[in-house]
Amino acid sequence: MEWLERTELLLGRAKLDRLRQANVLIVGLGGVGAYAAEMICRAGVGSMTIADADTVSASNINRQLVALTSTIGQAKTSVLAQRLLDINPDLQLRTVGEFIKDEATYTLLDSEPYTYVVDAIDTLSPKAHLIKGCLDRGIPVVSSMGAGAKTDPTKVEIEDIARTHHCPLAHMLRKRLHKMGIHTGFQAVFSAEKIREGAMIIDEQTNKKSNTGTISYMPAVFGCCCASVVVRDLIGELR
User: Fold this and answer.
1) CA-CA distance, 148 to 34, in Å (whole number)?
2) Where is the THIF-type NAD/FAD binding fold domain (predicted)?
């Protein structure tokens, strides 16, 4: 395909073919997940499933790829699907418009032979269960930690979950996973930057029970890093 000629020049035909044959699941299409999905699509992955139950709101516009004034109120899966298919009309794409938690996690993971999973969920319990489900099934997974309350993209790191630090979400996730018998075994994208004071407020009205200040570029950086893990691992270049 002509649109992938620059990618083929970089990676070669054999590695590009590996990407075409891959089937990637992205769960969570907010600030991180949608950018990860687009970069994976542009890299030439042939099959994808994108999952999220949320709709676009005005508060998403400062950081989310799918959020425009024209898309407010629309399902994130629908907006992103249209964009991905405009990039690659031959993409084998499935959308799942539901919250992935509890039994739905395992139903989704067993629905197709995924070669990679991107965890871009921002709530703890569904996040932990998705990761455990992937590890139990031997599906490689990369997980995004918290991109909020940070401003320095040079502090973003990719490490095994056991080596994450300076991230409250990673700290809570490690504790939850330890109770499940999981201490290591998957890559996490996180920032070593200290949390900015005053950037988080408690909000008992939401599922997350807190709102965190965010800047436009940080979730995009996290999403690109997640995509890089997927692509580099699929072509055998992840160190």
Assistant:
1) 16
2) 10-236
Q: If you compute the radius of gyration of the chain from its CA atoms, what whole number of angstroms results? A: 17
**How far apart (Å, rounded) are the C-alpha atoms in residues 173 and 188?**
11
Tokens of 137: 């099934």
163-191 tens-digit pLDDT: 999 999 999 999 999 999 999 999 999 99
What whole-number distance in Å separates Cα of residue 142 and Cα of residue 235? 15
Looking up tokens 């399902």 gives 75
The pTM is what?
Answer: 0.95
Q: What is the pLDDT of residues 83-97, one digit of tens each?
A: 999 999 999 999 999
DSSP string, the chain: -GGGHHHHHHH-HHHHHHHHT-EEEEE--STTHHHHHHHHHHTT-SEEEEE---B--GGGTTT-TT--GGGTTSBHHHHHHHHHHHH-TT-EEEEE-S---THHHHHHHTTS--SEEEE---SHHHHHHHHHHHHHHT--EEEE---TT---GGGEEEEEGGG--S-HHHHHHHHHHHHTT--S-SEEEEE-SPPPTT-EEE-TTSTTSEEE---THHHHHHHHHHHHHHHHHHTT---
- Cβ(125)–Cβ(176) under 8 Å? yes
